Amino acid sequence: MDNRTVQFHFFATLGEAKLIRDREKEIGILNESAYLRKMAIDGYLIQMDLSDVKEAVRLLGITSANMNQYTKKANETGSIYK
Length: 82
Prior knowledge:
By secondary structure, the chain is mainly alpha-helical. It has 3 helices and no strands. It has helices spanning 14-27, 32-42, 51-77.
């Protein structure tokens, strides 16, 4: 069995600390170090592909710019066709 010689240290808000402790109790782990180690090693992250959303936001920006141009022209001339 390897001795644990590397220390990790992080800060949490009071709310985050309460959530961590509540989850420890919920699953029955009484040792905070064991819980944090287990979550760091076996926990999971959700990585979302937002490329479609980013493209939609980009296209919306282009559309907004076009609408602004039409609005500016309409306000200047009274018509968008001039």
